[in-house]
Amino acid sequence: MTIASTTQLICFAALSATLVIGAIGVVLLPNIVYSAFLLGGVFLSVAGLYLLLNASFVAAAQVLVYVGAVNVLILFAIMLVNKREDLSAIPGLALRRVLSGLVCGGLFVLLIRVAFTTPWALPGPTPVGEEATIRIGEHLFSDYLLPFELASVLLLMAMIGAIVLARRDVLSTDVATGEPADQGLIEKARTPLLVENTLQETAR
């Protein structure tokens, strides 16, 4: 075994462990902000695996699209919504966990079976090299045009949903003065409540 193959094996093991541990943390951590940050680590690990496969363009797209756009959008949506809801007991939580565990376990066994029973072509195909980006563009806008457009529509719907969730009414009472707040402040341009009260007191 050469130094290059040993290094590649070590990098693959490290990236795979980071990917699995990060994915488990995304699901199990109670703090949603920590889960979002771990999701960014999972995306970076996937980008590293793409680099090991000599797919540099796909790795760069993974970092730019998922880490730089989707994960940041998730973080902004979480921090902007910030809804305060009282936690209540979920009915049938134990049964839901058992069913979810069975489904995830079945998918894991299926993936393991596919990984060990598929006759993988080793070594893989010859790398295209500098023409990889051109080939991806040709397939993306010819063979895979419909899935590409559907993904664009789904991302647009996700962005609209994040905007709808981020929009919220102002508090019913002003924090500083304790007076009832005007719910129209968020919909129309006018003098903020605190500034308006200050001007009225100055006029008196």
What topology does this entry show?
Layout lengths: L2 H26 L3 H21 L3 H26 L11 H25 L14 H9 L4 H22 L26 H11 L1
Helix pairs in contact: 1-2, 2-3, 3-6
Features:
single chain; 204 residues; mainly alpha; Four Helix Bundle (Hemerythrin (Met), subunit A); 2 domains; 69% helix
Question: What low-confidence regions span 5 or more consecutive residues with pLDDT below 50?
Answer: 186-190
Q: Output the helix-strand order.
A: HHHHHHH
Strand % is under 5%
CATH homologous superfamily classification of the largest domain = NADH-ubiquinone/plastoquinone oxidoreductase chain 6, subunit NuoJ
Rg, Å, rounded: 25 Å
Provide the CATH topology of the largest domain. Answer: Four Helix Bundle (Hemerythrin (Met), subunit A)
What is the CA–CA distance across the termini? 87 Å
The level-1 CATH class of the largest domain: Mainly Alpha
Shape: extended
Q: Treating each run of at least 4 consecutive H or I residues as one helix, how many helices?
A: 7
Report on the architecture of this protein.
With 204 residues, the protein is mainly alpha-helical. Helix content is 69%, strand content 0%. It has seven helices and no strands. The chain has helices spanning 3-28, 32-52, 56-81, 93-117, 132-140, 145-166, 193-203. Helix 3 packs parallel to helix 6. The protein is extended and about 85 Å long.
Quick recap of the structure?
This protein has helices spanning 3-28, 32-52, 56-81, 93-117, 132-140, 145-166, 193-203.
